Amino acid sequence: MTKNKNIEMPETEDIEKNKSEFQDEENNLNEENNLNEENDKSEQIIILQEEIAKLKDSYLRACAESENTKKRCQIEIEKNTKFALSTFAKELLPVADNLHRAITSVSEEQKEQCKALLEGVEMTQKELSKVFAKFGIKKIDSLDRIFDPNFEQVVQEVEDPSKPAGTVIAELQAGYLINERILREAMVIVTKGGKK
Predict the structure, then answer these.
(1) For the chain, how many structural domains are there in total?
(2) Which of these, 92, 93, 119, 132, has the minimum number of CB atoms within 10 Å of its CB?
(3) For 22-81, what is each residue's pLDDT tens digit?
(4) Could you tell me the residue range of the domain that residue 163 belongs to?
(5) What is the β-pairing status of strands 152-159 and 137-139?
(6) CA angle, 135 then 127 then 87, to 5°
(7) DSSP label at 167?
(8) Nearest to 188 by CA among 137, 142, 124
(9) Is residue 187 a contact partner of residue 157, using CB atoms and an 8 Å limit?
(10) How far apart are CA 150 and CA 148, in angstroms?
(11) 130 neighbors 96 (Cβ within 8 angstroms)
């Protein structure tokens, strides 16, 4: 058997060199893979952080909307409570009118004869006024003031040059407010043709 001299065996040094190069390449690939994994993780973290920010924003908006709805409902409930009595109060206004008429219809000569009855009617009127005040019902003061179409309705105009035009000189029916909202307009007589 003869040896073939053309085939050369690599030297140990070359093997070590190739091995080292291969190891370097493998390390580079591992580092590159690690960097790619880190980049992927960083991208995922950024995406998740953006999603968390969106969810947090949506949550805060939902909480704010819920608070606003709660406040609006509370305001509506308060309004309804304040003005739910309007219909009932309107029904009581003629009672107040009749009590006032009963008191003013008694002449000076009759006051002594029906003193007890008059006191009873006055006490009833005061009690009704207290109930009105408790529920925010107030009488509108119109006499000797300039006519205000928001609170009064003119029934008649009278010539009176001693007072400015548009002054309320008589009240035929009292006007009332409930919680600063008009419940019933006052029916009044005003002057015309006087000083402006």
Answers:
(1) 2
(2) 119
(3) 777 777 777 777 777 777 778 888 888 999 999 999 999 999 999 999 999 999 888 777
(4) 85-192
(5) unpaired
(6) 40
(7) B
(8) 142
(9) no
(10) 5
(11) no
CB 118 within 8 A of CB 111: yes
Tokens of 169: 């000189």
Question: Cβ distance 191 to 167 under 8 Å?
Answer: yes
Quote the CA–CA distance of 153 and 13 in Å, as a whole number.
119
Which tokens belong to 7?
């085939």
DSSP code of residue 149? T
> What's the pLDDT band for 160 if we cut at 50, 70, 90?
confident
Report if residue 53 sits inside a domain.
yes
CA-CA distance, 49 to 56, in Å (whole number)? 10
* Nearest C-alpha neighbor of 167 from the set 150, 181, 152, 184: 152
CA 146, CA 163: separation in Å to the nearest integer? 10
CA–CA separation, 27 and 21 (whole Å): 10
Residue 123 three-state SS: helix
Candidates 90, 187, 79, 193; CA nearest to 132 is 90
pTM beyond 0.70 = no
Of 84, 118, 140, at which residue does a domain stop?
A: 84
Among 96, 86, 93, smallest CA distance to 180 is for 86
* Chain position carrying tokens 């009240």: 171
